[in-house]
Amino acid sequence: MRVSPWSTPLLIVYAILITFAITAGPILIAGANPIEAYGAFVVVPLTSQFTLLEILVSATPIMLTGAAVAVAFRAGYWNIGAEGQLLLGAIAAAGIGTLVGGLHPVIALPIMIVGGALGGAAWALAPALLRIRFGIDEVVTTLLLNPVALLLVNGLLHGPWRDPVTGFPESPRIAASAEFPTLIDRSRLHLGILLALIVVTVAWYVLARTAAGLRLRAAGLSPHGARFAGINVSRTLLGAALVSGAIAGIAGVSEVAGIQNRLTAGLSPGYGYTGIVVATLGTLTMPGVAIAAIFLGDLTVGASSAARSLGIPSQLGAVVQGVLLLTTVALLALRRNRARRPADGSAGSVTGDVAAEGTAG
Description:
The chain is an all-alpha fold. It has a single domain, classed as ABC transporter involved in vitamin B12 uptake, BtuC (Orthogonal Bundle). Helix content is 72%, strand content 0%. Helix 4 packs antiparallel against helix 5 and helix 12 runs antiparallel to helix 13. The radius of gyration is 21 Å and the shape is globular. It starts with 7 loop residues before the first helix and ends with a helix.
């Protein structure tokens, strides 16, 4: 059977190849051979057990934020606030984690995970209500709440949660019963990766196999058509926004309980924003989100190794990720416009085009 050159897997391959071609220039300017650099970015991390495990560690938070963004986008709710929701989940985890020292991990860990999810959902509530009640654009409100969440973190770390012993701006260490166990000795791979895979699997099942998932996808594809079919679009958007915030909050829990064991100012280097890249590369499908998260985890680990071996800035990894996002969105929009032009000559929005990619997932 002939495969269309516009099929989604081929488009992602095209996007990767175009990205490598575009970023060859900055790599040359940095004084490295692009072929060697791409090998260091992608292939070298796959050659040892240590770096393979580090790829999974790097993929854990962005798999969760990618799933959070994908759920919201599938409903037509453009949640750009996963970063802030992650930070609120981290705050909740750090606070609860210091209070559950007397509990067995079987009890302490679920309490902390639920608390972090509720923290993320609570941070997502106000923008969702503003969208539903007053039609205020959630892109603006969710984005503006991200720096507010960061200010809240800094306020706590420079105030009541400052370490009283060292004076460093970091919260007290959470109880041992609240720390995620490592899955493999002498590695940083922790329970969070299993939690991320469970979240992605459950989200896939709900979206693809349940009536609630059908309502959510219908609201995202055609709100007017969904209303005509009797779907309460406002309630569906609210539910998607809260679930999205809760998943992002769990990403914050994962970083506190699995890596830092406390709240720190540098807890997230932008995992919430990277989640948008992951969701877009995964075309808003949960299997795609998992694969994209692992691929970007590979690039992240590879960028560090390339910086050491080739003497190039590690920030080039972020440049590759950014160009890859733009290239993917451009190709998806081009395919959508090409498919629609014979019918009505119109061009769809980029966000609508990307959202439509996930309908089959």
